[in-house]
Amino acid sequence: MAAIQYPPHEPFDRATLDSWIPSLTALIREAGKVVMSVYAEAIEVDQKADRSPVTRADQEAETVILAGLARLTPDIPVVAEESVAAGDVPAVGRSFWLVDPLDGTREFISRNGEFTVNMALVQDGVPVLGLVLAPALERLFVGGPQLGAWMEAEGRRVPIRVRQVPEAGLTVVASRSHGDAAALDAFLAGRRVAAVASAGSSLKLCLVAQGEADVYPRLGRTMEWDIAAGQAVLLGAGGAVCTLDSRPLVHGKPGFENPHFVAWGQQPARG
Predict the structure, then answer these.
(1) What is the Cα–Cα distance from 248 to 266, expressed in whole angstroms?
(2) 218-235 pLDDT per residue, tens
(3) Among the listed residues 59, 76, 62, 58, the one whose alpha carbon sits nearest the alpha carbon of residue 20
(4) Would 77 disulfide with which of 50, 90, 207, 243, CB 3.0-4.6 Å?
(5) Could you report the per-residue pLDDT of 63-72, keeping only the tens digit for each?
(6) Backbone angles phi, psi at 194, to 5 degrees
(7) What is the pTM (predicted TM-score) of this model?
């Protein structure tokens, strides 16, 4: 692949981002094939310094993505989960990539299919382009604030959009592996709730983006690479990701750790 041409000190316009998507789609699908090749075998699990699990799929998929981004956008720094865990933390400026080569490692290990490969381009704190591949489910989500959002599945590209909250109330999606039931109950108090479902990885953000859920409260620890790609898709679908004091969630923070946040489709009035 030839290196992508871009103005490194100017905001990325829609035409520029559109022109990159075919190369980036090919790259994330290549990483997804690596993940699925490991998924087909006996999975060996190690622990990182923070006691979170890591597998060969995390490491090998990240190697593929880093090599691809070095070819495509050599002047844009990449903040990638496994590299950061190994102490390789690049300096970032106005523009940088956030990469999670295997989001939902616990889901990968348990073989429930709810894991993703995430790539997001951040400009001035905002994810302007995100790709979320769920390789076991054969679904790719792409989007950004200037781009709209869509899902590719079964050889078709389908536009996706957040929905109006039904009269019956909110469908809430929560983390399958990192739930805090008491904190979730406190957040939902006073709201009309129709259903609460669990899902793994950044698929939760994509479920809100495609109108299958209305809100995803994350009341626990996350890192920027966990969220940015799904956030870009949700922004493109008409949603929002806000801190608990209703400020937009931004990226490039010291340590790349997120505060608690809420991902909304269309935020309803309380009552």
Answers:
(1) 15
(2) 988 899 999 999 999 999
(3) 76
(4) 90
(5) 999 999 999 9
(6) -90, -35
(7) 0.92
